[in-house]
Amino acid sequence: MKLNVSASLTYRFAGPTWVIAAIEAAHSPDQAVLSEELWITSGPALIRDTDSATGEHRFRTALEGQVGINYRAVIDNGQRPLLGPDARQHDWAELPREVLPYLLPSRFCPSDEFMRFAQREFRSVQGGGTRVLAIIDWLNSHLDYVHGVSSAKTTAEHTFIDRAGVCRDFSHLGITLARALNIPARAVSAYAHALKPPDFHAVFEVYLDGRWWLLDPTRLAPVEGMVRIASGRDAADIAFLTSEYNCQCLSQTITVTRVPDEAETRAA
Q1: CA–CA distance, 171 with 143 (Å, rounded to integer)
Q2: 74-128, pLDDT tens digit by residue?
Q3: Are strands 32-40 and 56-76 parallel, antiparallel or unpaired?
């Protein structure tokens, strides 16, 4: 699927403030960046950072006053595969070294505190893919998607108690349960086609059968229409904007539209 994605962010900074931004699509094997453009209305030159292992891009710069940050791109994410029940769970000895950190507890995903619950709830479910799909079913059966009940400090433990949250809360609890079952899992920020209202979307991936599989635990957007931006242990690693001092978000507009294929264009 080819997608047009764009982000237009306007912030006000009281004084010179360093920021780290992750709003550019990753250049990864499962998605091709056909064209892209990034521009800022004012400020010094950008320091560009690229992770050669994941193809993720971030930039650093110092901003002051009212500033617009803009990005647009055309992405081809091909035929993004969907996780099936037959995907095999690996023994730890089989896992690549770079995957190992995603077995461990992190700030928002205290998986060590969920091991007893996860084993009791999912013990009878056999197979890696089947277990992960059972986790997604459990999240949708036991959590309500509700704005305003969580904050940037909410952990998976809080979400488990409140039984409500938004996309990052669903993902944190999904990651936590997967890790508690010895399945590597990581947080992912993404652009998402058909997400209503349009916004940056927090989803997660699990490592099974020798690859990472993208999942939306909220089921609000199809995985086939997602564009990966950044990945990490939890939301602390994938924030679209991190600043050294407080700043004010004045506006944010995200759009993701499908590019018609040639057959559709000819028919029109």
Answers
A1: 11
A2: 999 988 899 999 999 999 999 999 999 999 999 999 999 999 999 999 989 999 9
A3: antiparallel
Going along the chain, which residue ranges are E strands? 2-21, 32-40, 47-51, 56-76, 144-145, 164-165, 185-192, 201-208, 211-215, 226-232, 241-243, 248-258
Q: CA-CA distances (angstroms) from residue 34 to 9, 29, 72, 198? A: 22, 13, 11, 22
d(CA 142, CA 134): 12
3-state SS class at 24: coil
Per-residue pLDDT reduced to its tens digit, 179-230: 999 999 999 999 999 999 999 999 999 999 999 999 999 999 999 999 999 9
66, 12 Cβ separation under 8 angstroms? yes
What the block records as the tokens of 74 is 């055309």
Of 4, 20, 2, nearest to 69 by C-alpha is 20
Contact assessment for residue 62 and residue 43, using Cβ atoms and an 8 Å cutoff: yes
User: Which pTM value belongs to this model?
Assistant: 0.94
Burial zone of 251 (CB within 10 Å; 0-12 exposed, 13-18 middle, 19+ buried): exposed
